[in-house]
Design brief:
This protein has 152 residues and is mostly helical. 60% of the residues lie in helices and 7% in strands. It folds into 2 domains: 80 residues, Winged helix-like DNA-binding domain superfamily/Winged helix DNA-binding domain (Arc Repressor Mutant, subunit A); 33 residues. The chain has 6 helices and 2 strands; from the N terminus they run H-H-H-H-E-E-H-H. Strands 1-2 form a two-stranded antiparallel sheet. Strand 1 and strand 2 form a beta hairpin. Helix 2 packs across helix 3, helix 2 packs across helix 5 and helix 3 crosses helix 4. It is globular, with a radius of gyration of 17 Å.
């Protein structure tokens, strides 16, 4: 007989993901940020001198181009990012983080760390490191871009 679905990896990972997402959403709300906006700022904050197109940001953040377009528009309204023409591709606009965006990103990352700390509070340092390594392997197998990592 097959294993109960509630014990299978996709179900348990979805439950953990959903709980973390809800807690992160509550944490980001006072900062006026959504998941997609945080993902955009995070990507842009990794290399502040580099710019990315909306499509690149969407791909790196794992969201649809439409979601990223909405996120970037909101960030533009708040002067957290700027758009400039690409130096060689005139029709492409690159998005860059502003100093205000970098400051908000630092606050958001600090707030998000409290969610992570709560989630892993019962893990030892070794278990936490092992869990991250295993998740990165799954992401690599599934061809999911890992923020800030060029290889696993």
């Amino acid at each position: 007989m097959d294993q109960d679905f509630s014990e299978r990896l996709p179900y348990t990972m979805r439950m953990v993901s959903q709980a973390l997402s809800q807690q992160l959403e509550r944490t980001l709300r006072p900062l006026g940020l959504t998941h997609a906006q945080l993902a955009a700022l995070t990507q842009l904050g990794l290399e502040p001198s580099s710019g990315y197109s909306g499509a690149e940001l969407a791909s790196r953040a794992g969201v649809t181009p439409q979601s990223m377009s909405t996120a970037v528009a909101s960030l533009l309204e708040r002067d957290l990012v700027v758009r400039t023409p690409h130096p060689t591709h005139g029709r492409v606009l690159e998005v860059r983080i502003t100093p205000e965006g970098a400051a908000l990103l630092a606050r958001a990352q600090s707030a998000a760390k409290t969610v992570e700390d709560r989630a892993v509070a019962q893990l030892s340092e070794a278990e936490y490191t092992q869990l991250k390594g295993l998740i990165y392997k799954l992401m690599q197998t599934l061809d999911i871009y890992v923020i800030g990592r060029t290889s696993l």
